[in-house]
Structure formats: C-alpha cells, structure tokens
Amino acid sequence: MTNVSALMEEGERLLGVSDEEVRTSQVPMELHGQRLDKAMAHLVPEFSRSYLQQLIEQGDALIDGRVVTKVSTKVRWGHKVQVTLRATPQSQAFVPEHMSIDVVYEDAHLRVVNKPAGLVVHPAPGNWRGTLLNGLLALDPLASDVPRAGIVHRLDKDTSGLMVVARTRQAMDALVQLIAARDVKRQYVALAHHPWISPASTKVEAAIGRDPANRLRMAVVDLSHQSGKTAATTIEVLDHNRLGCLVQCTLHTGRTHQIRVHMAHIGHPLLADAVYGGAKAAGMARQALHAWRLAFVHPITGQTIDLRSPLPQDMVQALAEWDLSYNPKC
Q1: At residue 89, does pLDDT exceed 90?
Q2: CA pair distance 22, 24, nearest whole angstrom
Q3: Active site includes 158?
Q4: Distant-in-sequence, close-in-space partners of 327: CB < 8 Å, separation ≥ 6
Q5: Could you say which of 156, 158, 273, 314 is catalytic?
Q6: What's the rounded Cα separation, in Å, for the pair 76 and 94?
Q7: How far apart are CA 161 and CA 187, in angstroms?
C-alpha cells in the first residue's frame, strides 16, 4: 500500500516545477530491453513509476524524437528518452483540504466519521480533489504517514453514513484483518421500490462481478462462467406498503455496490439508483442508502465500539412522504 506522505512529497516536487520541465537521458546498457516506464523510473528516480506512466500515456514521452504512449514499449541501449514533466491531476490529488468532517468517535488509534452523501471517499479519475481523504489529511497530521490516510473501507459517493478510519499503521493492519474476518458489523438502511413480499428476513447469497454487458456497473454473476466473488447480505424488512419498502441490510462480505446489486437482483432497486434500475421518487435525488450502524471490538484496546448514525434528512423526508416507519433492528 502506498504511503500518502510519499505521494504528497511528489506533489510538492511537481509544484516546484515551472509550467513544465524536459528531462533527456540516454538508455544505458543495464536498461536495454526494459519497459519504458520501468526505465524511466531509473532515469528520473525522484518521481514515482505511476506518475511517469501517466506522462507516457498522455504523450509526454519520446524515444529518439518519436512520441510513445505505451508504457510497455521496450527501450534499447543508446535510445534517447525524453520526458516532459508536468503536474497531472492525479499527481496533485493527495493534498490536505480543509472541510467539515463529522467525527463521531476518536481516540489515539482510530476515528469513526459520518460521511455525507455526495462526498467521494478516495481520489480517482473525475474526482482527484475534494475527497474525504483530502479532508483527513487536513484534519490529522498523522494521516499522511498511513496508507490511504487510514481509509480501510469505502462508501459510494452517494451513500451516507459511518466509516472507520485508522490513525496508525498498527490500527490499520488490525482493522483490515477484522474486516476480512467479518468481525466488523456494518448495517445499512435502504428505501426501495415495490412492496415487500419475501420473508421478513432474507439472506441473499449471490456472487458479484463486473457486468459483462456494462463494465461500469456490477452484477450478480455465475462463478462457473464468469469472474466475480461470493457475496452475502441479510435483508430485513422494517416497513412497507404499496409504494415501496424500508429495509435493513447487514453485510457479510464487502463487494463493490453489494447492497445495491443484491436489492436490484431480488426486484427491489433502491430509490434514485439509476445505475441499477431505481427511479427518483419521494424526493430522493441520490440512492436511498445509509450506513446507520458500525460495531466492532477495538483492535488495540479491546473496547466494544457500537455506533449509530441517525437517518439523513432526505431519507427522513422520503419516509414521511411514503408514510413508512423507521425502527431499526440491532
């Protein structure tokens, strides 16, 4: 896992570069036959290989005067390699940004935050800045010394609710192990289309992988024919009527979009979840999903941590519009 402080230092070095800086090197014998990105990592050692790969792919690298955009291109002894160093969005992503973060628990080892809908957790294409990670770097000086600023699990941009974040490497490694062993209880509340007709408590066990028809979304897949991972979610109905249903979902695994995929799979797409067939309704403009409970044994102190987050106002208003009652089950 990449140390965030190293990425921050690289961003600071790039801020020191003017608009651009051209570096030219000749490939030595010991790099003959190497991939271009690997060779450049030796020739320009103060910058990361991932950053140099970005430059190659956007046309900023030349071999003997010819633009090369494939990082796997092989270099030969005596080739003149030229690269134009310039700041990229990704290279400047890992910087502190002050923002309001709702911290509901904190100690020397970890903190639990209540993420609002609309906040991206980690820098990625299209959202290199303004993420929770940027806010954590500004909130906590320790965050830059921990991989991913201590983020051990994620919520989708438009999902609200509780997330645990490590403050030390020891706590991070321990939390990762807890999550892998399924010893962290994560419960969500979701508002979905259609009346509930299944048993009051239903366990959905259906593998999830990339949708072969649309690589931007996930889908329930048959592992005998497609790649994916096993996934299990317990779904309990809290209330329902002719308009739709309010359910509580307990994760047993942590696959991408798991609740959204499983709910759509059983015929109950979430309100306003257009990716998985949910229409806007009851005033919801984002997927109606909230991580309301997070419970685990503190990996360092042994203390029982059991935290709850009230429903955000948009979901409260949606329940009122549909005349549904919220009474979560622990």
Answers
A1: no
A2: 7
A3: no
A4: 238, 239
A5: 156
A6: 34
A7: 10
